[in-house]
């Protein structure tokens, strides 16, 4: 082979060896995704192993090699080959990685009942609305009236108000705090950016209030920002799970907890509980200074009615 061609071949081989495959990139993390993405490239017998594992991950974790082989209808050596085909060192390593994958919970690995049947749609319809009603009822039952009134009184007198929340529902709830309270003439902002939350918190003082939101009460970024604001004298109102880390550092904790339904395909209903708490807090704040709040609302409505599509019977906004 000519020298130039040998060099080019060596370069090509080196590049191929140093470039990880898509499967290899996943091996260190989610083995369930690796198995699903690798399945089309496996042999028919190894595909049967993949189907058996994915059908019952918990069984696969605790089963012996012989039991796994019988479940898939293959030989024990095939189970070993499958483990290596998906990037594991052996069956034991495969089981360790499957156990790690189970940490997300069964609802993310097993389809809910009725999926793919004629019962799915009516069952889903009922379930979604039931979960929303349950979330709002949980908020109503969990709140203490005196805590809401103390928080509303503090907000009605504050110089500045900020709402902090990260993730999905808590971010939207923090936005809703701004949407509800600016109408009352309160200087309010919201943030879900960890660095910006800390910056805002550092500017707050004794006349200011932070509304810190977390459904779990474990959001590190929110806890840290709330702690900074409190350090400089601001009052911290937490809308969060009772007895959580966030609740423990708050001056006023508005406790609400909605256990998640065992169906990963549905949106979480806990955000309805957050919105209910925010609505109650906003209305309570308005009642602390009714004439001023009503004047602000009237001005907003007046300006909206000047638009071509103004409707005196419609909501304040759209």
Structure commentary:
The protein is elongated. Helices cover 59% and strands 8% of the residues. With 318 residues, the chain is of the alpha/beta class. Helix 14 (245-249) links the parallel strand 4 (235-240) and strand 5 (252-255). A 5-stranded parallel sheet has the order 2-1-3-4-5, with helices on both faces. The chain folds into 2 domains: 31-108, Winged helix-like DNA-binding domain superfamily/Winged helix DNA-binding domain (Arc Repressor Mutant, subunit A), CATH 1.10.10; 125-305, 3-Layer(aba) Sandwich (Rossmann fold).
Task: Give me the secondary-structure topology.
Layout: H1 3-18, H2 22-27, H3 31-38, H4 44-55, H5 57-62, H6 65-72, H7 76-85, H8 91-101, H9 120-142, H10 145-157, E1 161-164, H11 169-181, E2 188-191, H12 194-203, E3 209-214, H13 220-231, E4 235-240, H14 245-249, E5 252-255, H15 270-288, H16 290-305
Parallel strand pairs: 1-2, 1-3, 3-4, 4-5
Helix pairs in contact: 4-6, 4-7, 6-7, 9-15, 10-15, 11-15, 12-13
InterPro entries: Homeodomain-like_sf, HTH_RpiR, RpiR-like, RpiR-like_SIS, SIS_dom, SIS_dom_sf, WH-like_DNA-bd_sf
GO molecular function: carbohydrate derivative binding; DNA binding; DNA-binding transcription factor activity
Keywords: DNA-binding, Transcription, Transcription regulation
């Amino acid at each position: 082979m000519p020298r130039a061609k040998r060099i080019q071949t060596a370069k090509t081989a080196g590049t191929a060896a140093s470039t990880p495959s898509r499967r290899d990139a996943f091996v260190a993390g989610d083995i369930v995704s690796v198995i699903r993405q690798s399945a089309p490239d496996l042999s028919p017998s190894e595909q049967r192993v993949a189907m058996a594992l994915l059908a019952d991950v918990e069984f696969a974790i605790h089963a012996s090699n012989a039991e796994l082989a019988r479940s898939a209808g293959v030989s024990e050596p095939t189970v070993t080959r499958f483990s290596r085909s998906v990037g594991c060192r052996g069956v034991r390593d495969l089981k360790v990685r499957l156990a790690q994958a189970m940490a997300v919970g069964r609802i993310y690995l097993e389809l809910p009942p009725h999926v793919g049947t004629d019962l799915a749609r009516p069952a889903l319809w009922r379930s979604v609305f039931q979960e929303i009603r349950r979330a709002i009822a949980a908020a109503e039952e969990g709140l203490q009236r005196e805590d809401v009134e103390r928080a509303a009184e503090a907000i009605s007198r504050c110089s500045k108000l900020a709402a902090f929340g990260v993730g999905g529902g808590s971010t939207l709830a923090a936005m809703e705090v701004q949407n509800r309270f600016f109408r009352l003439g309160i200087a309010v902002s919201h943030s879900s950016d960890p660095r910006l939350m800390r910056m805002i918190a550092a500017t707050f003082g004794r006349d200011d209030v932070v509304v810190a939101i977390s459904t779990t009460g474990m959001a590190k970024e929110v806890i840290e920002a709330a702690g900074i604001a409190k350090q400089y004298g601001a009052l911290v109102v937490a809308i969060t799970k009772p007895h959580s880390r966030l609740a423990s550092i708050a001056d006023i904790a508005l406790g609400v907890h909605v256990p998640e339904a065992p169906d990963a395909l549905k949106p979480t209903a806990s955000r309805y509980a957050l919105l209910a708490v925010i609505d109650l807090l906003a209305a309570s704040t308005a009642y602390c200074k009714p004439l001023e709040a009503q004047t602000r609302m009237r001005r907003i409505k007046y300006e909206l009615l000047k638009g071509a599509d103004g409707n005196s019977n419609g909501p304040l906004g759209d």
